[in-house]
Write a structure and sequence with these properties.
Layout lengths: L13 E12 L14 E12 L16 H11 L4 H4 L6 H15 L7 E8 L5 E5 L6
Antiparallel strand pairs: 1-2, 2-3, 3-4
């Protein structure tokens, strides 16, 4: 039997959901002899991290299903594309994370109860970038 007298501590709830897409890119501003100036590709993983001041029923920050629009954006605009041709920023992991945070705040956050804390972009199993949204952005 479970102990129903366990006190629930006060704290902050945070959730995350990971999405994936495949894309190529090069970093045109690098010198031609730099390996990342040449066309190459990654199996990107993008993690969205959310919080909220209060939970909605039945105890969610945001229903994970409500994040489907973000996946649709990734699939339609970034998947199997050359990122340097479709993004308005240099396609580094850092700037991609910042751009995706901006897109999320503009297009998805007004429709969901959660608030974006950060976005992480992983290019490989050992390389990633994390963009943390400043609190005064809201």
């Amino acid at each position: 039997m479970v102990d129903e007298t366990v006190p629930l501590p006060v704290g902050t709830f945070i959730i995350g959901k990971t999405f994936g897409f495949e894309a190529g890119h090069r970093l045109p501003s690098l010198s031609p002899d730099h390996k990342c100036a040449r066309q190459h590709g990654h199996s990107y993983e993008v993690e969205v991290i959310l919080t909220a001041p209060a939970l909605t029923e039945p105890g969610f920050i945001t229903d994970f299903g409500d994040l489907a629009l973000f996946k649709e954006f990734l699939d339609e605009h970034l998947d199997h594309r050359n990122l340097h041709e479709v993004l308005p920023v240099e396609p580094t992991s850092e700037l991609l994370a910042q751009y995706l945070a901006g897109w999320f705040i503009k297009n998805l956050e007004p429709a969901i109860p959660g608030h974006l804390v950060a976005i992480s972009v992983r290019e490989t199993t050992t390389s990633w970038a994390h963009f943390h949204v400043a609190k005064d952005q809201r």
